[in-house]
Each structure stands twice: as C-alpha cells, then as structure tokens.
Design brief:
about 600 residues, alpha/beta, six-stranded parallel sheet, 20 helices, 23 strands, globular
Length: about 600
C-alpha cells in the first residue's frame, strides 16, 4: 500500500508533544506500507501526490499569519484532533474543522461530539509503538519512583494534587506540572521523548487527572505509561474502553485518588498483575495499523478530489485563518499572593487616599526601625528531645506577621521530621510571643518593621551554612528538611517545592523564570538556600514598599544570577492564607511592584 505522500506538519514554537505524536503516527503509516514524513514550519510546496496533516488548534494559531496555509492547501489537509470536550482547545479545533478537507480524532468522546456537531470525523485509534517502549516487559526491572504525575498546571488538577499530598507523603513522588503553554524544549517540570519514557519506565504508578471540565481519559499519556509498565491510577473517565478497570488500570473518585494510589502500592501482587497484563494487551491487541491505513485512504480521497493548483494559479492568502488568542505565558499560573497578581493587579493609578495610606504604612515601618526596641530570647528547650538525625549546618528562619497563626504547630512539625534542623529562629514582627519556654530563639519586634527586615535580622543571628526560609502560615511534611537538604547536598544553591494552598491548590510549583517573575509573583517562601547566596545578593529587600513581596525580590535575584535551583517535585508544605492588614502593595500596587522589581 503506497498512496499519496503524507506530510505531518507542526508549527515552530508549538508543543513538542505534538511533534512527538506525529513521529509515532508517521512511523505507523510507514509500517502500514505508506509514505509519511514529519515537518516543522509552513506547509512545503505540494503537488497532486502530497496531503498534509496538522493539529488544527495549534498549527493555525501558533504559525505566523503570513505563513498559514492557503484555502486550497487546507482542502488537501487532514485535521488531526487531540483535545477533549470541555476544554477551550477542543472548541477551537471544532470551529476550525470546516476549513479542512477531512479530520480524524484520537479520542472516542471527542469523535462522538464532533460528529454530533455535524463534522465528518473518523477515529484514529492509538496503540502500542516501539518508539515509546523503554521498558521491554521485564516485570522485575527496578522502579525507584513510586508515583509520577505528568500534566500541565490547571486549577482543578492543582487542587486535587494538593488534596492528595497527605496520602502520598511517605512515597517517592515526582509531580511534573509545567504551565499550560507551548513547550518546545525540556524543563525541570517537562520531559520530552526518550527522557519521558525512561522516567515512566522507572515509575511504579502514573497518577492521571482530567483538565478543566473534561471527563475523558488522557489516552496518549496513559498509553505512554502502559508501554513502559507504569500502572495508571485515574479518576473516572467516560471512555476507558478497550481498557477494563481493575485489569488494565485503577479507577478511583477524584477525591480519593491519593488514597487509592497509596493502597495500590501496598499490594505488590495487584500492581504486578496490572503492569504485565496491560503491557501484553497494548502490544498484542492495540495495533495502530488499521487506523494508519484508514488515514492513507482518507488522504488518497483528498488528493483525488482536490488536486494541487499549478504555481501560477495558487492564490495569495489575504487574511488570517484564525487570530492567536493566548499570550506567551500561561494564564493558569497562580500568584503566590492571594490578593496581588502582579501586572494583572496594577490597573488604574490609586487615588490620593490610598497613596496617603500606603505612605503612612511605610513611614510607620521606617520609624519603628529607628526607634523601636528589640527583645531577644534564646531557646530554652531542645527542638527534638528524642534525638534522631540532625543537620547542624541548617537553621530555619520563620517570620510571623500580624494576621499569621502562631508558630507552635509548624515548629512541632519540624521537631517530628526525619531530619532535624540545627536551630529554629523566629521573629515576631509586631505580634506577641506566648509565655513559657520555647524550643526556638525569638526576636520580638513590638511594632512591625517589615518581613524583609525581619528575615535579614534572623539571618544575622544564624551561623548555619544552609537556611530554610518559612513563614508562620505554613505546615510541613516530616520529610521536608530531608528532601530539600538532599537537593542542596547534590549541588543546588536553592531547593524548593510546591506548596498546597487551601484556596489556590498548588502554588510555587514552577521553577524560577525571569520572564515570568517580571510579570507575576508566583514564588514565595518555603525554600532552602545556601548562606553564600543570601550574602551575595544582600539578603531580602528591606524597603517597606516591598512588604509582602520580599520573597519575590529574592527569587528575582536568583533568576537573574542564574543560581542553580531545584524544584523538589512533591508537596511537602501547606499553608493557610492569612489576611494581613493592608500593605503598600494593596494600597499603591504600581509603586510597590516597581520598587520590588527594580535592580538592587
């Protein structure tokens, strides 16, 4: 079987995921006796023997307007649909289909929905491919990662991962949650090609969650896991067939996927049975050959019905096929601050009353630093009376501000940890320290001086080479110190982790990027840093205008310097959202944001 030449085209700057998928489809077409090649960029010169395949919601949006296909080319192009109903990208694809000569879809639910909307769409059944298999079927191969998660950041998924954190706490977890924007190269939170499949071959379980309002199985991700013996735990899906729950994967309600995952990992026999049976089933019964041949037949029909025009007859495009709808940064990246969202919150200039209130707040902090006394109290109790592993070169700095809860519960978490810090130092910045002996040193500011100033005072009291920076509104896993410390011992200058937030789901779940930090304060406290880094950057911003943005100022410096950072991909911290008094950033956000983002 030969037929027309298929050119599977991706847009430069589009998602690497689409390019990888097209490599698999092209390989299946060639295995079925057809001709297929992948291509990145505008559609190449065509003839009667060429038919194109593109992912509509990405190719026609990412490609520059002057490079988009002509209408006659689109009539010789097959739309390759990959999105599920209930997502914005699905609706974009559906709106573009009338321009194409034909369409296929990899999902049962989206095929059905597109047909219901009046489109002629055929199902392309994905299946086993040797391009994804880095395991080979050995049931006794080692798997060092207990749970892995691969999915773009999105509020619903983020909230479910935050809820599951406690159930997964004692396991080796890797949460890779990149922003929902085109990924063109590997990142700490985004794996590509061979690296992704090798990661799955080292993982016992893949946790699968739906995006937005979708209820359909994420077929590509699940098949990649199955090809590498990684057992899938998913929330309920409308289109599991031909998989069978309990035999090929585990299905659990979204509220208990963490508990179901932990339970599966305690049942070695069930885990092994699902791993081996799913791999056998995919290899032997999910053959992409029939779908590849159907794609070739559709291409032959288009080539016959829509011959390519001669060069002199080819029209020049005069308008865009579709306008781009999203900027280069993901819209779902949450701000660390629940009240201030960076550039999005700037808006109009504040009125004179708010400007005055902001200036008075700054002046009170400045006056307190000049005139207010400081009370120091040394720790009178050991942090962990029972002993245990201790990192004497690591101190914990905690600042408590007005509106924050007390620090007793957080310090108790640290005392129960698998590794204990050398010292804990707490600054009560305008708040009251309860009476009685404490297992931590205390600096008392009777009048608030500002968190940046408070952290720098604590740093001056510390003598440790490593500093764990927390705030009083946090709780921590018993593994926090151990796992952040391991990252720094391995060479990182700064180690941090996602933080579960009661309102926002996961925050701080991305690595530091200068371009993103310039627009959004998405990273905050909850990091372990080398003292030398803090000394070189001058500690935290002390300008009272930066109150609430002191950690953002720290991350700006780290990103600008190119310090080595590691995102430990497990939720090891949680926080309650405090409701502090109005800060300068709330009253005059333009000035506060400008001050914090200025080079120090």
């Amino acid at each position: 079987m030969t037929g027309p030449r298929l050119v599977l085209a991706s847009a430069p700057g589009g998602s690497a995921f689409m390019e990888e998928l097209f490599e698999v489809v092209a390989d299946a077409v060639r295995s079925a006796g057809g001709r297929a090649e992948t291509h990145v960029g505008p559609l190449p010169e065509d003839d009667d023997d060429t038919v194109f395949v593109v992912v509509p919601h990405e190719y026609l949006v990412v490609l520059p307007e002057n490079q988009r296909p002509r209408p006659d080319q689109l009539r010789r192009t097959i739309a390759f649909c990959v999105e599920h109903p209930g997502t914005r990208t699905f609706d974009t694809s559906a709106s573009l289909l009338p321009q194409f000569g034909g369409a296929v879809d990899i999902n049962a639910d989206s095929t059905e929905e597109l047909v219901r909307r009046g489109h002629d769409v055929r199902r392309f059944q994905l299946g086993y491919t040797p391009l994804w298999d880095r395991w080979g079927g050995d049931p006794d191969s080692p798997r060092a990662i207990d749970v892995t998660y691969l999915g773009t950041a999105e509020h619903r998924r983020s909230a479910l991962l935050a809820r599951a954190a406690r159930d997964l706490d004692g396991l080796e977890v890797r949460l890779l949650t990149p922003p929902h924007e085109p990924m063109v190269k590997p990142r700490p939170d985004f794996l590509m090609g061979r690296a992704k499949h090798e990661h799955l071959a080292r993982s016992r379980v893949l946790l699968n969650l739906h995006r937005e309002a979708s209820k359909a199985l994420e077929w590509v991700r699940v098949l990649e896991a199955a090809c590498n013996g990684c057992v899938v735990v998913t929330e309920p899906s409308r289109d599991l067939a031909p998989f069978t729950a309990g035999q090929h994967l585990v299905v659990a309600r979204e509220t208990v996927v963490g508990a179901a995952t932990a339970a599966l990992l305690r049942d070695d026999e069930l885990e092994r049975s699902i791993r081996t049976e799913t791999y056998r089933f995919v290899r032997e019964e999910l053959d992409m050959g029939p779908s590849a041949r159907a794609l070739l037949e559709l291409a032959a029909d288009l080539a016959e019905r829509h011959p390519a025009p001669t060069r002199s007859d080819r029209p020049v495009p005069t308008r865009a096929v579709v306008a781009a709808t999203e900027g280069p940064l993901a819209v779902d990246t949450p701000s660390w601050d629940p009240r201030f969202r960076g550039e999005e919150s700037l808006g109009a200039e504040p009125g004179p009353d708010r400007r005055l209130a902001a200036r008075l707040t700054v002046e009170r902090a400045e006056t307190a630093r000049r005139t207010d006394g400081v009370v120091q109290t040394a720790a009178e109790l050991p942090l962990a009376p029972s002993g245990g592993p201790r990192a004497d070169d690591l101190d914990v700095l905690i600042v408590r501000r007005i509106g924050d809860p007390g620090v007793a519960a957080l310090v108790d978490d640290l005392a129960r940890g698998t590794t204990h810090p050398g010292r804990v130092l707490v600054c009560q910045d305008g708040t009251t320290e309860p009476p009685g002996p404490k297992p931590y040193d205390v600096l008392q500011h009777p009048v608030p001086r500002g968190a940046g100033h408070a952290y720098n005072r604590l740093l001056a009291e510390s003598r440790a080479d490593l500093v764990l920076v927390l705030d009083a509104g946090m709780r921590c896993s018993q593994h926090l110190v151990t796992r952040l410390l391991a990252a720094v011992r391995a060479g990182a200058d700064v180690a941090h982790c996602p933080v579960a937030d009661v309102q926002l789901g996961l925050v701080g779940a991305l690595p530091p990027e200068a371009r993103r930090l310039a627009r959004l304060p998405y990273l905050g406290s909850g990091y372990l840093v080398r003292r030398t880094v803090l000394e070189e950057i001058g500690g935290w911003p002390e300008d009272p205008w930066s109150e609430g943005l002191e950690h953002h100022g720290f991350w700006l410096e780290v990103a600008d310097r190119g310090d080595r950072t590691e995102l430990v991909q497990q939720v090891l911290l949680s926080r309650v959202v405090p409701d502090p008094p109005a800060r300068p950033v709330d009253l005059d956000p333009q000035r506060a944001w400008a001050v914090t983002n200025a080079k120090r």
